[in-house]
Design a protein that fits this description.
single chain; mainly alpha; 5 helices; 56% helix; globular; Cro/C1-type_HTH; DNA binding
Length: 70
């Protein structure tokens, strides 16, 4: 998939656990884990907004486009 999720990196920068973020934004740890691993096909804008608001970052800090090699 050409979209890479860098949520782990943002959590490390802030010395925060997935559990803390999940509780803060009202998401289950399981769903946050699936998001971090890239096993989801989409993300709701309100979830992305909550993550960015809590982490103080931009969507581009979390989502990255990496073209696939031909």
């Amino acid at each position: 998939m050409p979209i890479r999720i860098n949520l782990d990196l943002e959590l490390v920068k802030r010395k925060m656990t997935s559990r803390e973020l999940a509780q803060a934004i009202g998401l289950t740890e399981t769903n946050l884990s699936l998001l971090k691993s890239g096993k989801v096909k989409g993300i709701r804008f309100n979830t992305l907004e909550a993550i960015c608001a809590h982490l103080g970052c931009q969507p581009g800090d979390i989502l990255e486009y990496v073209p696939e090699e031909e």
